[in-house]
Amino acid sequence: MEKPILNRLNQNLKNLPVYQPGRPIEEVAREIGLPVQSIIKLASNENPLGPSPKAREAMAQAIHDVHLYPDGNAYYLKQALSQSLHISPNRIILGNGSNEIIEFIARAFVTPGSEVICSQYCFAIYPILTLMLGGKVVEVPARGLAHDLVAMANSVTDKTAAIFVANPNNPTGTLESTGDLERFVDSIPPHIPVIIDEAYIEYLLNPAPLIDRLRAGSQSNLFLMRTFSKIYGLAGLRLGYGMGDPDVIATMEKIRQPFNTNLMAQRAGIAALGDVDHLQRSRQVNAAGLEQLASGLRELDIEYTPSHCNFILARLGDAARIFQELQKLGVITRPMGGYRLPEWLRISVGTQEQNDRFLKALGTIV
Ligand SMILES: *Cc1c(COP(=O)(O)O)cnc(C)c1O
After folding, report:
1. Beta bridge pairs of residue 227
2. 55 φ, ψ to 5°?
């Protein structure tokens, strides 16, 4: 039966790709009939150590206050970020995850028919939001698995609405050098927003100091994004932030819902920022875990890409099948067919035990 209502839907939504998240433990448990405790998830680049003890404590305290609306401007969290990052609070906007920051950027700049430049193998949310808003995705072929920053800069036209670059990149784990990144940012005309997604920057020992340009107020078209979902271990609370020019930020503030970051997230975020021990331990556990996974994959004679993040990409041939086999053994990973890398599987770094369990399970399959 024909449903005339369907013709009234926003037609940009008709063929819009759907983001495929890592599968939740409970869902897989239901499906394969194993208890939740027996399943490990190495699929969404979460911190295997969990939230910091200080964040847990702050959340326990916050329970008593959740009948109150949060501070819509998140004054204290912005102050904490401002002090920790040495950047003024009016250069910071908070989001319900940095996914929401991507949405703010898209809604602030993308108009029907405008172009958004992304790299092949980029984070899936950039093209999805572009298409939703009627924009066109200009996908620049990768160099190997890394970005071709020069080609991206050369793709700028009068229709360019924004350029998105994740560095290091998800899902490839690749890192652009500081020099290349700085030359790239310098080469973008000042009226074109250039967005660097720094979701994994805290894992780097020597990150490119792009934030200095914001501190100095020397580049109003530069926008940086970060998140509490990865090294800070607060993915379930949904908290991320963007940093940019104060006038751009002030305009984006008009887009956001009045209470887009919740009270629990704001309190936990402040505490997590103050827990340097947990941050360092998370970094160490990740570095050790990456080595463990890399050496285990080498022993199994499986190709992988050197990663600067908290995950590793392994080339397994029919990765979709291996994903299924691993899942039957209670190990959830992430197949990369959606990123047009069908031979590759992405494995988030777990605890030593979890990495070991993954490697043993993989060994029985391949
Ligand atoms: C995980 C990730 C994010 C963060 O998402 P949140 O919404 O903050 O959980 C952003 N960008 C990239 C490239 C990521 O991998």
Report:
1. 240
2. -65, -40
pLDDT of residue 246: 98
Dmax over CA atoms of the chain, in Å, equals 61
| pLDDT for res 251 | 97
Whether residue 15 is predicted with pLDDT greater than 90 in this model: the reply is: no
- Identify the domain containing residue 237 by its residue range: 53-274
> Is the CB–ligand 1 distance for residue 355 below 6 Å?
no
| Distance (Å, whole) CA 169 – CA 67 | 39
> Ligand 1 mean position to 122 CA, how many Å?
12
Domain holding 290: CATH number? 3.90.1150.10
Q: Among 119, 197, 239, 241, which is best to mutate for testing ligand 1, by the most ligand atoms less than 8 A from CB? A: 197
CATH code for the domain of 217: 3.40.640.10
Residue 203 has pLDDT above 90, yes or no: yes
Q: What's the structural domain count of the chain? A: 2
Nearest CA to ligand 1 atom 4: 98
pTM attached to this predicted model? 0.97
Give yes or no for a contact between 163 and 197, defined as CB atoms under 8 angstroms apart.
no
Same domain, 214 and 140: yes
How confident is residue 134, by pLDDT bands cut at 50, 70 and 90?
very high
Residues 133 and 155 in one domain: yes
pLDDT in tens, 80-131: 999 999 999 999 999 999 999 999 999 999 999 999 999 999 999 999 999 9
> What is the distance in A from the centroid of ligand 1 to the CA of 192?
23
Q: Give yes or no: residues 121 and 173 share one domain.
A: yes
* Domain identity same for 89 and 222: yes
* Domain-terminating residue out of 225, 248, 274: 274
What is the three-class DSSP state of 244? Answer: coil
Q: Which residues are paired to 162 by β-bridges?
A: 116
pLDDT at 255: 96
